[in-house]
């Protein structure tokens, strides 16, 4: 047995200036570190080369997606232990040249180069997508949505389960089923919107049609659902037909900016606004305001990040941007509320359900791991690894209060000032 693991552990600790909290198992079968600790498996020298050429989160992500790195033990434990050790400069993570400017790191880097070699940078995995130069045009939004959602409906069924809801569930108790919690979330949205038979609902970013079907079946409303994903639309239309709801539900492949057949009595936007982008958010809010009848309600369900002391230094997450949501931009909840009110809405309620998303993500990860072979066959091993890492890391981020998720209820209040909400709005009658 060789000594690559011991050398690698020593050099990485020298580079980081702190002990590694995990065990290292290297490509030559050697191991180093606490024997009881979970292991970071370095399958080949290419994994280290990726980190040398792209230090930080993006290099680690490329090695993980390509299968050059793996984890032996509990994924959540390793992610928690490693989260504070990766230097990160947003999407501009330090290059090898910048790293070598640090005198204290040069010896460690030279040792890593001797251990692994340093040819040309390894090509990124094919699952990586380049961030477009101009975000949130109709063309780039459609491309980004296709990258994320047109992975295959069978793959998403494996992860999401029968509910096919790809947003935070609303848990009555931690041991409830995922399907029960997703049903409760859809019902909560319907109650906040005060849906009644005969009303018109616009579901923006309708996904696989779960909200549209639930609202039509349980509340008798006429629903228009819009998505940019053709695979989602085909799946949603079949669900609508199978439920016998074609007279109430229409599913369109359409950009929300192109919806012109208002007014609607209510609008649901569940897990869609994260794709809109900071520069386009006011336009998004004004479009939805325009489509509502006076007195109509909007339920905006959206992930939020914590505000920075200096917002100008904020950068998108390098891994999420390259592999998951190439158009995704998170904003603090206060910014979202401000933009909705600038568009003319009166914000009447904000409910944080952060812990609910952590529970939801852990269930999705469990589904993926339980049927890993099928998921990897359907989407490809690299894409399945992307989803496993992204969902597990996101669960920890919600649990650690680094990100949150909020349901914002806003009203197009008429000139009379009568918003139409009960005096005790949280009863949602």
From TrEMBL:
Its EC number is 2.1.1.-. The keyword Acetylation does not apply. Residues 155-391 form the Polyketide synthase-like methyltransferase domain. GO terms for biological process: lipid metabolic process; methylation. Transmembrane segments: none annotated. InterPro entries: CFA/CMAS, CMAS, MeTfrase_dom, SAM-dependent_MTases_sf. Gene3D superfamilies: Vaccinia Virus protein VP39 (3.40.50.150). GO terms for molecular function: methyltransferase activity. It is an enzyme of class 2 (transferase). Pfam families: CMAS. Keywords: Lipid metabolism, Methyltransferase, S-adenosyl-L-methionine, Transferase. Belongs to the CFA/CMAS family. This is Cyclopropane-fatty-acyl-phospholipid synthase family protein. It comes from Streptomyces doudnae.
